[in-house]
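[Discussion] Sanity-checking designs against the backbone

I'm trying to build intuition for which residues belong where. Below is a structure token string of 720 positions. I'd appreciate it if someone posts a full sequence so I can compare it with mine line by line.
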């Protein structure tokens, strides 16, 4: 008995020494604050954070203090001493310009004004003859951002001995869009139920709300749209507003504003009116009153996000009016309170009057200049719908008089949903870095979005959230990286994906160099891999019907054409691809002449967009010398091979990752690999019916015939 107890004790000790035995469910995201005992700059860290001056007294200051306590306790095993005003012992000073008048003179007036309300400085200075660090900005909010950035430097083992960081967000509105319903289902959510426990609100504030706010603040997200774009008018009633107010109170000290989705027909559904016509004075009065009521509950309410005239949602078209007329009615109601409207450009018609890729542009472009000043038009990154890869939306660069907000989808509706590791930092970077040529070369999508191209002071980025009640928040551990990457790119749309991946890995899993190198390799090839095994060479929208899970190139004959696969791939004996040049839908004409020329010419069209813009014969000769059919097949195979090498890389870093997260990621990578084969086999067998050509060398024969795949109908897929 005694011997087995001793054995257990020794085992437990060994486990503690060897961190990988410890369970880690991923709840702490990138705020792991792992012990720093092996960090190269440990002694500098210890010196720099012993005596901290933090003069602020607000709720935000308290949060800064708590975070430092938590982080430094975990990382250094120390408990720093805090004081209100600098004394000779101070090693770290965290205060605003107003709180530190003497020190503030060191910063130029112009810099203070550039910092605005959210930018911060982290600087090494000599103070009282000592090497001191200070974190400053104009507001406590800026200090919170600066503190998180400072903790990131420690977490990623950076040298902090001579810092001179000025960080200013390039976009103003950095929001998550939750497609969460009041019944706690999440549209396109793959990580459990909605984290908003409406039934228990306003009384019960789950600890998860606080951690949600911390995580978001740590990456600069400053707003959250709590409700689904397919909106429920009830969320604007007092019953819900009390609950929304409780969340707003919780998030406020973290600098996070709440927003709601406004259902255009709410005046009818909850207001007792018989119309929602935006030009009707009673309707306007109703919204004005409603908005005033909301601000009584939530004095700093952010505003509305609206999906109108799209997929069955009501909108101004119901009254023969334009999107601007609809948006402006709400905008005017919000103006007295400094609220904004995020009006989605995802508008397309049930009747499929034209190539779906063209409809938003046709609808919105003529309205440039007609929106009120507090309206942003929120545009998805591509013209169809968050496909694995899309060329940038032609509206970017086409509406210089209107602030255009980027809408990315963080939840992976079309990218493997809850089980595929697909690092979206690469996708976001690709879109943001693309040149629209709107004002000549260099007019990147990033510059349209951050407002710098057309001098807009209002700017923003929205990310459709992948968060749910799963213990690790995002279902897949690596889904956390997509939330992280979104925040980072919203703050700075020019940041590069590789830096983001590396930072996230270090904070989330640790600083071991092999882990970081291989982890990065996995992440940075993962998006291309998914494109290869799902929709290579510009193919798009060929996934399973309705749930969008798995392959479904055979989907056809549904109640609307533009929700089928055959509409998009146009495969037949003559070839494959959607002709969007002048001989086809001419969607290409919506882009700047430089893009038209480049993408329209087969010699210069990037092959990644080839079948998005061109319909080509199966034996069309690719740059590689291969026939198109062979090239398609080889791309599918490459995607499968890439998932294999992602798996191998992950297995090789087993010793550097805790068991719990290692095992989950490993299993998901195995699922991903099997599903990549599923995609490849199903799509190749389907297209082979038209190409009538054998699979090229290197692409193994599928294990099952086509009807096996066509008859497989996944049931109860989450997120519908
Ligand atoms: C599509 C989704 C659908 C959303 C829609 C939207 O399939 O669930 O409601 O986008 O963005 O991607 O409104």
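Best answer:
Here's mine. Compare freely.
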């Amino acid at each position: 008995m005694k011997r087995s107890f001793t054995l257990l004790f020794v085992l437990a000790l060994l486990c503690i020494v060897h961190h990988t035995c410890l369970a880690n469910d991923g709840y702490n995201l990138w705020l792991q604050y792992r012990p720093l005992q092996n960090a190269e700059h440990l002694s500098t860290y210890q010196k720099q954070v012993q005596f901290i001056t933090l003069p602020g007294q607000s709720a935000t200051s308290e949060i800064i203090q708590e975070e430092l306590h938590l982080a430094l306790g975990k990382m250094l095993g120390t408990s720093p001493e805090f004081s209100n005003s600098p004394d000779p012992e101070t090693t770290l000073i965290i205060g605003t310009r107003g709180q530190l008048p003497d020190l503030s003179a060191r910063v130029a007036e112009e810099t203070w004004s550039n910092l605005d309300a959210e930018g911060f400085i982290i600087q090494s200075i000599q103070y009282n003859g000592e090497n001191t660090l200070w974190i400053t900005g104009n507001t406590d909010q800026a200090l919170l951002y600066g503190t998180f950035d400072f903790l990131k430097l420690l977490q990623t083992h950076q040298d902090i001995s001579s810092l001179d960081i000025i960080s200013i967000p390039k976009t103003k509105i950095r929001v998550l869009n939750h497609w969460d319903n009041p019944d706690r289902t999440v549209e396109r959510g793959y990580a459990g139920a909605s984290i908003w426990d409406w039934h228990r609100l306003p009384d019960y504030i789950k600890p998860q709300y606080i951690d949600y706010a911390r995580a978001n603040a740590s990456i600069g997200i400053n707003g959250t749209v709590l409700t689904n774009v397919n909106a429920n008018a009830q969320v604007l009633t007092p019953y819900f507003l009390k609950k929304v107010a409780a969340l707003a109170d919780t998030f406020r000290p973290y600098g996070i504003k709440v927003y709601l989705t406004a259902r255009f027909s709410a005046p009818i559904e909850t207001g007792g009116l018989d119309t929602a016509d935006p030009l009707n004075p009673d309707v306007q009065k109703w919204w004005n009153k409603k908005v005033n009521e909301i601000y009584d509950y939530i004095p700093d309410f952010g505003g509305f996000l609206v999906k109108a005239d799209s997929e069955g949602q009501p909108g101004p078209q119901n009254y023969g009016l334009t999107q601007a007329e609809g948006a402006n009615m709400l905008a005017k109601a919000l103006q007295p309170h400094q609220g904004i409207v995020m009006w989605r450009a995802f508008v397309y018609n049930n009747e499929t009057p034209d190539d779906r890729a063209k409809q938003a542009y046709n609808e919105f472009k003529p309205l440039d200049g007609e929106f009120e000043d507090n309206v942003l038009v929120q545009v998805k990154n591509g013209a169809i719908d968050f496909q694995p890869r899309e060329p940038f939306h032609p509206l970017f660069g086409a509406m210089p008089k209107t602030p255009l907000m980027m809408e990315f989808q963080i939840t992976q509706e079309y990218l493997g949903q809850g089980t595929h590791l697909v690092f979206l930092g690469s996708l976001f970077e690709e879109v943001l870095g693309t040149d629209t040529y709107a004002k000549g070369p260099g007019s990147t999508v990033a510059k349209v979005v951050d407002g710098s191209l057309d001098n807009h002071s209002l700017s923003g980025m929205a990310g459709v959230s992948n968060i749910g009640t799963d213990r690790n928040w995002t279902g897949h551990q690596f889904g956390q990286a997509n939330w992280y990457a979104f925040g980072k790119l919203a703050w700075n749309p020019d940041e590069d994906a590789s830096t983001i991946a590396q930072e996230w890995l270090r904070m989330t899993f640790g600083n071991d160099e092999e882990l970081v190198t291989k982890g990065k390799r996995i992440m940075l090839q993962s998006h291309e891999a998914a494109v290869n095994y799902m929709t290579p060479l510009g193919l798009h929208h060929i996934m399973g019907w309705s749930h969008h899970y798995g392959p479904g190139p055979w989907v056809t004959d549904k109640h609307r054409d533009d929700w089928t696969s055959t509409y998009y791939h146009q495969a037949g004996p003559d070839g494959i691809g959607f002709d969007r040049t002048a001989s086809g839908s001419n969607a290409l004409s919506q882009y700047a002449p430089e893009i038209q020329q480049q993408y329209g010419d087969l010699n210069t069209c990037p092959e990644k967009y080839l079948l998005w813009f061109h319909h080509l014969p199966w034996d069309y000769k690719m740059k590689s010398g291969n026939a198109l059919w062979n090239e398609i097949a080889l791309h599918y195979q490459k995607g499968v091979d890439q998932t294999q090498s992602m798996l191998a890389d992950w297995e090789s870093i087993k010793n550097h990752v805790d068991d719990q997260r290692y095992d989950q990621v490993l299993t998901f990578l195995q699922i991903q690999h099997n599903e990549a084969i599923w995609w490849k086999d199903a799509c190749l067998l389907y297209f082979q019916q038209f190409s009538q050509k054998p699979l090229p060398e290197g692409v193994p024969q599928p294990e099952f015939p086509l009807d096996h795949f066509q008859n497989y109908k996944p049931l109860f897929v989450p997120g519908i």
